[in-house]
Batch of 4 targets.
Target 1
Amino acid sequence: MTAANHRLDLDTGFLGALLDGPHADKRHRGREVAEHADAHLPDDLTLDQKREATKDALHHVVDSGMTQLPLPVDAGGKNDHAGYVSGFEELVASSPSLQIKAGVQFGLFGGAIQHLGNAEQQAKWLLPALKGELLGSFAMTEIGHGSDVASLGTTALYDPADDSFVLHTPFRAATKEYIGNAACHAQAAVVFAKLIVDGVDHGVHVLFVPVRDEDGAPMPGVSFEDDGYKGGLPGVDNGRIAFDHVRVPRTNLLDRYGAVDADGVYSSPIESPGRRFFTMLSTLVQGRVSLDGAATVAEKLALDIAIRYGLERRQFSGAGDAETVLLDYGRHQRRLMPRLARAYADAFAHEKLLESFQAVFSGADDSEAAQQRLETEAAGFKAMTTWNALDTIQVCREACGGAGFMAENRLVGLHADLDVFATFEGDNTVLLQLVGKRLLGDYSEELRHIDFGGAARLIGSQAAEYSLYRSGLANVGRTIGDLFTPALNASRIRSGKMQEALLASRVESMVAQVAQDLRPAAKADPATAAALFNDNQHALIEAAQAYVELLKWQALNEAMHAVDAKAHPSEAKVLRRIRDLFGLSLIEEHIGWHIMFGRLSMARARQIGPAIDRLCRKLRDNAAELVGAFGYGPAQRRSAIAEGAEAERQEEAAEYLRRERAKADAPVDEKVLHRRRKAEAKAAKGAQKS
Amino acid sequence: MTAANHRLDLDTGFLGALLDGPHADKRHRGREVAEHADAHLPDDLTLDQKREATKDALHHVVDSGMTQLPLPVDAGGKNDHAGYVSGFEELVASSPSLQIKAGVQFGLFGGAIQHLGNAEQQAKWLLPALKGELLGSFAMTEIGHGSDVASLGTTALYDPADDSFVLHTPFRAATKEYIGNAACHAQAAVVFAKLIVDGVDHGVHVLFVPVRDEDGAPMPGVSFEDDGYKGGLPGVDNGRIAFDHVRVPRTNLLDRYGAVDADGVYSSPIESPGRRFFTMLSTLVQGRVSLDGAATVAEKLALDIAIRYGLERRQFSGAGDAETVLLDYGRHQRRLMPRLARAYADAFAHEKLLESFQAVFSGADDSEAAQQRLETEAAGFKAMTTWNALDTIQVCREACGGAGFMAENRLVGLHADLDVFATFEGDNTVLLQLVGKRLLGDYSEELRHIDFGGAARLIGSQAAEYSLYRSGLANVGRTIGDLFTPALNASRIRSGKMQEALLASRVESMVAQVAQDLRPAAKADPATAAALFNDNQHALIEAAQAYVELLKWQALNEAMHAVDAKAHPSEAKVLRRIRDLFGLSLIEEHIGWHIMFGRLSMARARQIGPAIDRLCRKLRDNAAELVGAFGYGPAQRRSAIAEGAEAERQEEAAEYLRRERAKADAPVDEKVLHRRRKAEAKAAKGAQKS
């Protein structure tokens, strides 16, 4: 079953440096945390022990020096947001529970104080938070409302009588829910509540609220419930928080975008309540950026494990005597190689996202256009990467058979822990609708201003001046006609221009189609407009997915072109294979569309599948180096099947069988006996005849 | 956002009886087990406690009277195999751990004694096993080999000196692995080992081996390891078993298909060792049949939960004031309704499978043709249904947002427990390859006899005389031409004949294509033939999937046609919607293929998506009744979000908001204030002017 060998001589270190990107040093620091065994959460710990171990492991994150990277230089930081997030997302290798707990503590709780608090508030609470001395919750989501933050029910009523806010949970659905650190560890919380001052509801603002006293008892009026067992992330103590007329001083309002002065007068630097709300929420983008990266880390780990095992595990004897290595099976290659290519795309695309993130958060370019592009890309990337990671982990787990189901081989734990990534920090479906809505708004000024109601309304008010659509797509789409020459041979099917044109023209057409279908909404009443939007919701989300796929492909393509092909011919070549496999896989996934809309002739479409098969076979021969470039070692993988045990066992078995066969009295296979007897009978018959 | 209502007045009981099939009474008995709380495995139990609770709950299964149903009538049974399996698979609602533990104990351990043992052996061990008094393991899989049973390494050497077998694990990879009941509870095991008698290796046979003494200590020479934590099924104590020259009496060989007499002479009623091996393994089909059913139960439970929640949960305000019910969103319908249709197809197809199973196992029709058809269908159904169940559970969990991730809402547990279904009792990929190989063999006599090596060899030796392909497909495929009239309108796109023709012709063409590609193998050496087969492995598996999809569609179609449309017009109509949604979804999934191979014109293909949207909307209006027909109650669902808590909370919140708004001093929204001020300014300006 061995065909031609397509192995290229690869410099794994070179590829690894490309993947790790400009913040490689921070990534390495993040990976080193995995070397501390105390954060690994062995399965036989109780839930409480896992929570304590995770809390205690926070100090490794603090010790790594990462948590203060995003502080301004004059506050002792480096204004390094991308480096911070890079290091952070690598904590997945230590344990996703630690990554998320650290995300709650430093990113969300600390981040809210940094981005929404004033200097005085930062002086009091920020450093203790970033040092892990003041543990906190980010109390936004309620039982009744998650992704729809504007509809939160918790109220913060200003009481001029004693210059304080009265925080209150007026009904059960307004109870804060799924709040990390709430069940056990939070001493304080940043609480999202409707701010009511002097009879006016100013919408959602954030307050700093002490929730437990020094002995860990709930502060008066604060009550907790434990979310208990979840599908994963056992080290994170999620819980519910309710407030019964809890008073906090006026100065506990994080007041960068909305303040109440000593006279009880509300003011804000942003006049429009809608813009103010979205500005406050914009700091949430950091969570989405880091989930995009964390999901990428998780899929790399899973592929690393499954491919190492697939290169050792043998099953079913081949044409000769030796059993066949799993990764030599055509189907096994088809399951894993396109996912490997996609992991490369996710990694390079994530580095681009980090670039935008750093520009906006460092202040290098925090124009509204840059902010909105960041938000759109973070939303789309987070949604697509987290789903992809879940699928990839599941395929990897199945590719390892029964061994994949054993907790000690890590894959089931990664799936369980990553599961919630699809619905937290913005439900993936809602996030993709946001991306779709932006595409629509860019496509048509008219559509930007229609009130579609429902979820669409939330997004409508965020419309921006820049154009994703026109800048990114139209010029690419235009070139597609040129590529439709009838004589496309097998190698031309791998043309990068062709791939980009197909991917881009799909986005273009899908958005145009939805826009056309929505046009009547301009003259309709709101209910009809909303119904029309709803009829197109599925199509709009598909368009958003197509757009994100295009961006990921472009990032991979760019990374490939950035390699000096003269200095690094093999690496450039393997990246081209990866890009082509990713691009063609995307095209194959939607091949019906490409044919239906006349982008691919049927004859050409039939070449896609075989081209993918060839690329899978070629990449298989460098599979070891390609996962090696991810830069993980046994401390990060911690999967018994990925470290050579299987090969060792096979060697032992083979050695035993060799010895047995060499023995004079080795048993004869009954089948051989049957064949022998038949031959003897035949010979005897022949002898009789002659 | 409310469109026309398509609600039909449905008789849920009537639909439920259809779904539950001819063994409804056994299903109800199985569901009742879920009412015993002691098998529910609350998350806060330790692993040991979960294992003990599951073991203890076995008695509910025994008490239900189910375990003896498959015994012959003269042994006190009912020869009722389908009823037995029907009741059994419903144990998933109690806990998948119990279902699997019971499957190991009664189905595999008991089943091996019943099907492979002689009368004396059955008299000694069978009833104690079926009463749960003698707990046992089914020790087939080894670390080194799972799906490839023929390559097992454990040996059973006959020693004439003391008329016993010496059971031995000659190397680490031959250790029995993932064995249910092994870690704690098994007193005995049916052990698969290569039988060596008088210098001849007769291939894999099964022996009854006591593994623990009355105090639970390992028998001399037997050693155990605990598999510990897995991705799910915590109540099943999986472990490893190794044998160090363990002696068992000659009479412990389960000798229906291979015996050793008192003189140490081996004999078998089946001369060919290959056929003998597959005959012994054929009893394994029961496991696959019941996993097909258990996976169907799991997907029904998940849909029941997610759809009930989706009908209550509201999120994002609609065009008016009230928030929109999740299931009114177009995308939400697109996520859940096609899966609901597929669950119906899985349920009806499973009943057909049970029919074949009953015919073969009861002896009503145990012809080789019937046996092989059963094996092929069980393999294909098990693979496709278990994958589908996993996907459906995941989609359901995400459709419930954060609540879906909470253990108390059941969905994450179902996913974790069902995960291993994809790779045990035959890896899904290997099973589908078996189906594909059968299709090939039926297509071409020539291909049936080529030795492709590898996994294909295993299957090749099972070739049968009957024809799946010719009987099931060709006549359907032939009608497709007639359907290609240019004037297909929107309603014709729902034509059942059209759906069947498209699904069938796809199978036909895919099989023909692979067969053509493999033709050169007939004249090639084994290595080249194997390589050629491997190049086509992916395509062959896709063809097998298409075949299973066709069978499932046909089962659903048949069930629909069996309803008397005059007596039950609404039920017949809703089943037609379900069939059409399932059929069109399958066609949409592979729309590229249908266009590429000229089966669908582009114009017609573009009608599929909108037709699916319309069907989703229509079925949404009967969603409550359609999951109601599954027949589960709170005791089976046990999901906090599925029992009305959400609606209650919303009512409380709405009531609060009503009261607040009625107050004279209710806070004014700042946005309203802005609008008011603008209006006043405008009015003032107007007043100045006039």
Note: Chain B is about 55% helix and 10% strand.
Target 2
Amino acid sequence: MSNIFLLVPVASILALVFAWIFFKSLMKNSEGTDRMKEIAQYVREGAMAYLKRQYKVVIIVFVVLFILLTIMAYFGVQNPFVPIAFLTGGFFSGLCGFLGMKTATFASARTAHGASQSLNKGLQVAFRSGAVMGLVVVGFALLDIAAWYLLLSKVIFTPEHMANGLHFLGLQFVHEGTTETQKLVEITTTMLTFGMGASTQALFARVGGGIYTKAADVGADLVGKVEAGIPEDDPRNPATIADNVGDNVGDVAGMGADLYESYAGSILATAALGAALPAVALAGTGIDPIKAVTAPMIVAAIGIVLSIIGIFMVRTKESATQKTLLRALFIGTFGSSVLILLALVGLAFMGWITWGVFWAVVIGLAAGVIIGQATEYYTSDEYKPTKGIAHQAQQGPATTIIDGIAVGMNSTWIPVVTIVLGIMGAFWAAGGAQHFAMGVYGIGFAAVGMLSTLGITLATDAFGPIADNAGGNAEMSELPPEVRERTDALDMLGNTTAATGKGFAIGSAALTAMALISAYMEEVRLWFGKIAKGGEGFVAKGQYVFYNDVAPAVEEGIKAVKISAASVKDFSAAYDITLFNPLFLGGLFLGSMMAFLFSAMTMKAVGRAAGAMVDEVRRQFREIKGILEGKATPEYAKCVEISTKGAQREMLVPSLVAIIVPVIVGASMGVAGVIGLLAGGLTAGFTLAVFMNNAGGAWDNAKKFIEKGNYGGKGSEAHKAGVVGDTVGDPFKDTSGPSLNILIKLMTMVSVVMAGLTVTLSLL
Amino acid sequence: MSNIFLLVPVASILALVFAWIFFKSLMKNSEGTDRMKEIAQYVREGAMAYLKRQYKVVIIVFVVLFILLTIMAYFGVQNPFVPIAFLTGGFFSGLCGFLGMKTATFASARTAHGASQSLNKGLQVAFRSGAVMGLVVVGFALLDIAAWYLLLSKVIFTPEHMANGLHFLGLQFVHEGTTETQKLVEITTTMLTFGMGASTQALFARVGGGIYTKAADVGADLVGKVEAGIPEDDPRNPATIADNVGDNVGDVAGMGADLYESYAGSILATAALGAALPAVALAGTGIDPIKAVTAPMIVAAIGIVLSIIGIFMVRTKESATQKTLLRALFIGTFGSSVLILLALVGLAFMGWITWGVFWAVVIGLAAGVIIGQATEYYTSDEYKPTKGIAHQAQQGPATTIIDGIAVGMNSTWIPVVTIVLGIMGAFWAAGGAQHFAMGVYGIGFAAVGMLSTLGITLATDAFGPIADNAGGNAEMSELPPEVRERTDALDMLGNTTAATGKGFAIGSAALTAMALISAYMEEVRLWFGKIAKGGEGFVAKGQYVFYNDVAPAVEEGIKAVKISAASVKDFSAAYDITLFNPLFLGGLFLGSMMAFLFSAMTMKAVGRAAGAMVDEVRRQFREIKGILEGKATPEYAKCVEISTKGAQREMLVPSLVAIIVPVIVGASMGVAGVIGLLAGGLTAGFTLAVFMNNAGGAWDNAKKFIEKGNYGGKGSEAHKAGVVGDTVGDPFKDTSGPSLNILIKLMTMVSVVMAGLTVTLSLL
């Protein structure tokens, strides 16, 4: 192992150290007045109550899956490490959510207080708090990866174990006679399955968080704003705390878990693809298999260090306008990107990556920027699409909806074309025309490249809900108007970064899923083991040996499964992933359907959860005397409780569907069906997600554009139509759209973990 | 040629004869009072004015494409028949549209008059008029196919021409030394490209008709009903005639052209797949290649004869309820299906089709019924989904929209699963596990089977708009209320058949596209011609010969194109349609995007065209004195003109995009890219179309459910929300959704026609 690999654990620890420093310096700031502290305390309690309940559900799911995975490991259709690794992936992702949200809820009042001093101070507090989330995510993700890589390569796959095998508790961890090449393949494909823990955690965080935040939002708006006519964030509204909690739950914890998964998934998938590179592809490049496997981790490590530097670049002056604020953030992210590229030039010169891979990383970084900018174009009220929706709002809600849907559907073209050019560009840049495997490895690196700036990108994302909450805190604490003006400026900035952040999240999800699907085939190839020509039988991973004639194997004390000559034919059929294999085509259809079905389920879930919230807010207005006069305190906790319960109840069915369908397809339609399912889910899911995110974002900003005084301003017919658009857009952009990121990745991850079972079933 | 083939021309002529008989007997009925005649005349003139203008535009497009195809034929990248065949396909489709619409516009007043005598009389007139459309479509489509097949097999590919070649006007029609096997492949792949004419015609009919009908509808509703407060179909509304014209233009002509294309496409694609069956697959089945090629035409011919019998089965009693009416239609369609199956049993016993193919047809027929029933479940107000939307309407327009979208997305699962099971079932039933080509041939037969009842199915579809128009006529002519009650009963029946008809149209479009995509590969294989190993060069179809070294060919006076060894490698790359070819994957993404982009464009188009209509209706109300008191006649023709112009103007861009994108993808991304594009367009487009159709249908019926007196009935807040849902749903279900059928098929058809160019470009 080269010394440069040490950068991986070092950078991940560095990220955690800086996260700690930023957190400490955050805590030194005052939370302001007693009222501010009180509000912040309510939100904090609500957020923690939610997290506690969510983790309880998640733990049950984890325990069930852990048992299932263990049973599979016992029967040899699963690697024995996977159950434990599954837990660590989930644990660290959950820990990030806890720490990020804790920080965010500590930061809102402090940001409001900072804004009461100066705009720059407010920006610094909010942004550095967001950076805690960003650094915690990349830090723990890379630390987990580094730890497992070191454990597996140094402790488990020792030369001695590789020669003699390693058994423990009746399970075979290392097969006798494992070669050096096999070792890397075994290690990386095993590590790949760790991502399953992060995926499961992300599923619940994104879907649950998405349902929570919208249920609270709709409840607060529909009864508070529309029926009772009190302003946003008014303390008389019982759902207002739940609404503020929702921002943290959905946009901090949900987004963080989503990107944690993409980050870990892209690195692990690329490492697995690196291990699968044939010698002929590496010949003459100066890259050895170990370099190919560790390079994505090293690129990620470099990205962490330079993201930290980028975070320090973000500062602004008091007289800052929206543009200069945006510029401050842009300098930070763009600065990190440039520094990363410079560092990669060095890495290429040192012979750790090929120049082709370098360009693949450049393409990934560029694709992230382009998708982000396109998202801004389609959803910002400074451009034609959103202005057009506001214009249509004059003719009533129906035309507002139609135009918003058209804008959203139309907006899919730039992201799709970017991803297509990105995939093809990365493939060819890395040398896919000469060696197919190199091209696929390049696609993986495009994903790693896009996510290399995650430390700072996530900081700008998490900044949004913190600023939003600071505004809420300022409003509820009745701070002077100039404070609210400053927090509003930060909040608007947050809306823009949230939109570009959503584009970034779905773009990286697509590339990560792409890398994972490629890695899935490696996993399948591994599980097939050595196929003996003519149906003589083959040795699968783990304890099972597949033979045409099981008797000799049984005599030797090996668990053996009979396979037929027909099964061996199925092996090539399983690899027939052409369109004309009806299993593949059927899978494609099902994947496309899954995207729509999952969206329908999450949207319905919001509707039901919001309905319960509406009833509760109405009840409080009715039953608690003096609440509207501000004489009685509403029961905030009741609303938090309802949103929490609703989210937990409603997230289960869609989540289970996302986990179970790939298993069923794998068992019934084999590898070709699974690949079709994943490809259909990826392509249709990506397009659908972009449509929903951007339609939702555009409706939101069209409404705000009208509220600025256009087309009659607040209270006009156009405004009413705009509110309808915004309400429809809420579950689009904050629940269903982002949840599709998870669906795309999770279905792939489940398939990877279930590859052993799928392959075994297809051979029996 | 066997005598049984004679059934094909005979059945097609029989269909036309019965269409003529039905038309004549229709014309014998009275159009009723002078007022009724006047109204009918307005609608007829409007419809013909529209058709005239549309055909003018279409003729220009056809001339341009004809010239392009001729140039391609001259340069040897296109078969010389294609330009002429393209024209005949377009001509017959256009003729069907003209005749069908002419009949429908003659039928509305006669149906109203018939309904003034008895319900059964009204049903008979409307249904038999619809049958004219159904029989004209299947008759001309099959006649065109039979004529070309006889021309090519009897006149062009004679033994003498096959031995010596056939040249004419400097173009090579038959290559020297063509074998019997090659003959059938050449004939069927050439015929396949005839469908391009039908596709182009269908594109303009569906997209233009869809825009027309919704622009008129929205204009009539928004200003007339909402602003001026006058009822539906009121003669004081200037847009009311345009609205009635729209029903004919969109639902008769548009639907007819759509299904004409599916019908011809499925038969031609299956014939091409039959010609490509390898001898080993046919061995022992008793089927020879000629039987394999003509069997789909014979099945279609049988379907025609038995559809005619089915049409005679449709009759009802005066005391008929909605249920008995529906039962009358069901007996007709179901009766035909059963008779077709019985006839196919005979065909299988006679050894014209295998039993596997028989089961594939059964699967196709069953899939059509299931998708139709699922559509009814999700869009009829007798079931939970639509009732749920009406319930949500109480909370305002936003929840109505969200719930409708969720219902639409949710409704995709049954049709998708049905299509998946249908594709896989037909594949395996036909013997795909043993011989891949047989399985694909079976999928083609599933499409042919689904469409075999088209004669009667289309009659029930066209019935809807005729009944709708009859109602309009009765209203405007102020007939007694019991007449309106009877036409309302027929209209409601029409709404149900329209919904199931939409499901049938998209289901058959999916299967047809599937068969076409498979046939596309045959087209590509043919164009590649005989690849010489090691880059020696190969002979492509037409005059060009591709050689590594062009000199010897040039000496022999043959136009020759140099190809490189790298190009020969591309040949296999072009066939690499696995997910891991980034070209294929990129194509998949682009196909999914095309579905969304096309929907956005058609939706925007409706918005703009409707805007112009709204302005015009407002102008007439303002400027024509006494219009609202019924003292002055509105300028109906002006509104018809505006809808017509708007539709023509707006249909061009989306239409051209649908035609050009496959060409660009073919030129830049080769065969793999094209296949990806088609697969992505098919799977995402199908899901999106089902979503849009069903969401639109459910909103429509939810509104009607409220109007029946539920949740406050007409004028309530729930009703207002229901109207918003219905308005959003209109372009969903009548423009964008149905237009996707065309997109799916047209992109495939364009690719088939351009296969020669794509292959040539990929080899240069």
Note: Chain A has one domain: 3-763.
Target 3
Amino acid sequence: MRAHVYVTLKTTVLDAQGQTIANALRRLHHPSVQDVRQGKYFLLTLDDSLAQDVARMEVERIAADVLTNPVIEEFTYRIE
Amino acid sequence: MRAHVYVTLKTTVLDAQGQTIANALRRLHHPSVQDVRQGKYFLLTLDDSLAQDVARMEVERIAADVLTNPVIEEFTYRIE
């Protein structure tokens, strides 16, 4: 079982790195890009014997406690 | 229109950062996590007037030329 966790800066937090990429893309002739936000991506491989709801709780705890800084970041996840 | 681009190290490349996270999770009493791979996540906001296939080509070019180091990384993307 695999869990994909996406961690991004909260929308209220300035994403300087994303803005730098957006500016670079405009200079590199990609004018259709209006905005870029950069984040982190984690692919977790979980024990296949876990029940779906247990896996969900486990991933939420890991994402909230370890992978995300709750002051400035938020996360979404997907289990497959 | 928004494009999500996920950049990860190729599976043949050692992901030291991911392994460090996996080891930390085991020490933090998450034994169900077997493996972790870390990557980067980019959320691109594109001009809404772009046709779907043009947007797809644009995102592929940006991901391949700017966001990914083709020697050690690979990407996937999703447009919504």
Note: Chain B has two helices and three strands.
Target 4
Amino acid sequence: MNELLSDTGRKAMLEPLFAAGWAMVEGRDAIAKTYDFTDFTEAFAFMTRAALWAEKWDHHPEWSNVYKTVHVILTTHDVDGLSAQDAKLARKMDQLTT
Amino acid sequence: MNELLSDTGRKAMLEPLFAAGWAMVEGRDAIAKTYDFTDFTEAFAFMTRAALWAEKWDHHPEWSNVYKTVHVILTTHDVDGLSAQDAKLARKMDQLTT
């Protein structure tokens, strides 16, 4: 079962993500980041790699793509807020771009 | 070069799309449709197939995905409105789901 991040878990897991360009979404317990690639094929290649991890972990992003940018929002619907799954997927997405 | 749809082109190309569930986007010369699939893998499989056509035709959607739904907006940025490319990609996307 997923659980909402505790105050300490939140600090430990989210601070490195904020340092890496993630930010809280206004009005939601969710984090977001916009990735900018060189073109559509790079952007969609990232989405494809991230999609495989999302499906493997059964934890899916809310995301949008316009040409070479991909905007990602992560939250955990069954706990209505951020869980460790979001931090894990955020870290994986960052890894996939490096 | 892309060209804005003429009045007659607009009627001929857009009416069948409206009948197929596409609609004008409020405040923009753009069309949109939301596809609902059975799960994330079906939704992302559709996006992958559509992405290959988009890249082949050098005409890319603005789209978002939340779990099993995909919301697509089509417009032609270099003419700041709808062109025949949008109708062509819309028809292809509909074909991919049948």
Note: Strands of chain B lie at 23-24, 31-36, 62-66, 69-74.
